[in-house]
Amino acid sequence: MQTYIKTYGCTLNQADSDIIAGIIGDAGIGRSDSEDDADVVIINTCTVKSVTERKILEKLSRMDRGGKKVVVTGCMAAANPDLIAKYAPNASIVTMPNVSHIPGILDGINSGKRYTINKYEAADRITGFKPAGSTIAKIPISDGCLSSCSFCETKFARGMLNSFSEDLIVNAIKYSIKSGSKEIQLASQDTGAYGLDKGTNIARLMHRISSINGDFRVRIGMLNPEHLGKYMDDIVDAFSDKRFYRFIHLPVQSGSDRILKAMRRNYTAEDFIDRVAKLRKEINGLSLETDIIVGFPGEAKTDLEATIDLMNCVKPDVTNISRFAARPHASAARLKQIKPEEVKERSSQVLRVARRIQHEINNSFINKKIDVLMTEETEASVNGRTDSYKQVVIKKTDTCIPEVGMHYVASVYAESANVLYGKII
């Protein structure tokens, strides 16, 4: 039997797909390079944005009509199984805590049976992790979160925080490095909450990781600002190990305290600004990524102006902008919504500010020489990351083409809002 895994969503979902691949491999089940050649397709779903949900449902509907055997897992399998059953009535549903059962039901699915396995149990799913030998290893460190954001549906999919064992995480990193990985991405719904259910925290995990020998880099995943103040000094100290990218993904969502309160984000705009200032003061060359939701119900023009003011104050290296869209289980869906055309215009306004800031920052790297770890290759280029996790693109038309997994010095000659373009020197 041949299987194919299709993944939607964040780094955590990608890490979960790697675990599913390991479980299937251990069972001696084959993997196909394409959906067309697979007997059963496993769809790992995302439910953060309605546009992604629509894309997944349309795909499931097409596959179901075409007679393809499908297993649906991931966030949508837990949060919206009724939608899956509506659009793909023949698809089996296996929620993420139950993916260890997938090998045992594949034969039945291939014979036309349908399964729904949705028992919830808090388990260290990372026990199923198998290093793939890839340059980048995505390692999950927890499920769920401690927040109750009014716009988010992922809580209904992932549940309360369940932090995985530090020992298992450290072992997964060691195995990945021995298998050739050079970049470790720690994935979680909220990395900032890691360990708070077990009497530890992300900073202590970082110190454990610092004891591992080897030449590798670690990217810390998205960290909510509300938890950062609990271990600020410890996380600053943990970043003294240069193998951690000097990078932090700290989503602010809005610059208006009124909207932050309505979102049930447990911090103020001033808290966010103060924490970013301390991080930048203590961690030289820190890159900041943030997220902003535009058009949250009740957002007035003054609230939007407060968000833009915060952006101009903080100057994020990367800003991810989302137009608010009501999610079925989230409480904000029951509020009076702003007209879509108005949300679109506000999003364009914020995007212009974000791109201007990103160009200003990246333009400062022109003609500079920077150290780069090459992490991936495309048909046209070899791409890498600086110590601050900025992406550097080396085109294959250059005379010196770098090798993935190796360190180089590059001279930056151009930039866009999202990447730097360099030549190896």
Task: Reconstruct the topology from this structure.
Blueprint: E1 2-7, H1 11-26, E2 30-31, E3 40-45, H2 50-65, E4 69-74, H3 75-79, H4 81-87, E5 92-94, H5 102-110, E6 116-117, E7 136-140, E8 142-143, H6 154-158, E9 162-163, H7 166-178, E10 183-187, H8 202-210, E11 217-220, H9 225-228, H10 232-238, E12 247-249, H11 257-263, H12 269-282, E13 287-294, H13 301-314, E14 318-323, H14 340-363, E15 369-377, E16 381-385, E17 391-395, E18 407-415, E19 420-424
Parallel strand pairs: 1-2, 1-3, 3-4, 4-5, 5-6, 7-10, 10-11, 12-13, 13-14, 17-19
Antiparallel strand pairs: 8-9, 15-16, 15-18, 16-17, 18-19
Overview of this protein structure:
About 35% of the residues lie in helices and about 20% in strands. By secondary structure, it is an alpha/beta fold. It folds into 3 domains: about 1-115, Response regulator (Rossmann fold, 3-Layer(aba) Sandwich); about 125-365, pyruvate-formate lyase- activating enzyme; about 370-425, Nucleic acid-binding proteins (OB fold (Dihydrolipoamide Acetyltransferase, E2P)), CATH 2.40.50.140. The strands form 5 sheets. Strands 2-1-3-4-5-6 form a 6-stranded parallel sheet, with helices on both faces. Strands 15-16-17-19-18 form a 5-stranded mixed beta barrel. Strand 10 (about 185), helix 8 and strand 11 (about 215-220) form a beta-alpha-beta unit. Helix 8 runs parallel beside helix 10 (about 230-240) and helix 13 runs parallel beside helix 14 (about 340-365). The N and C termini lie far apart (about 50 Å). The mean pLDDT is about 95.
